[in-house]
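Today's session is about reading a structure prediction critically. Students often jump straight to the picture, but the first step is always the sequence itself: look for stretches that repeat, for charged clusters, for runs of hydrophobic residues. Only then move on to the predicted structure, which in these notes is written as discrete structure tokens rather than atom positions. Here is the chain we will use throughout the hour.
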Amino acid sequence: MPEGDTIAKGQPPVWRAALSGLCPECGAPALFDGPVRFRDRCAACGLDYSRYNVGDGPAAFLTLIIGALLIVLALALDFAVEPPLWVHVLLWVPLTAAAVVYGLRVAKGALIASEHQRQAAEGRQVDQGDD
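Below is the predicted structure for this chain, in token form.
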């Protein structure tokens, strides 16, 4: 972050912005337009979210991590209780979908808040000129 680790007044910390979907500038709950889709801009302060490049990087890692954790839990349940297959389907399919969607919201919210607070931008070449 520029100027040390200070956060401007009104800006939520990265963890709070990520968990609650808050605007990284003013703290209004206006970051998402759908389950994991960003709004174009904040309705409260007008911050343009499209200038941040969050991308889909978190999606692959989260899906693999959440999938691995839920497989371990499903196998542990199966070894412990041996429920019928329909119990696994009713339990793990919605739990997986909810975990991936909420995980994406948190990861994307953390990335955009972190980019905003650190004033991250695309790299630019500086023309050195002929000395």
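Discussion point for the tutorial: The helical segments are 14-20, 57-81, 85-117.
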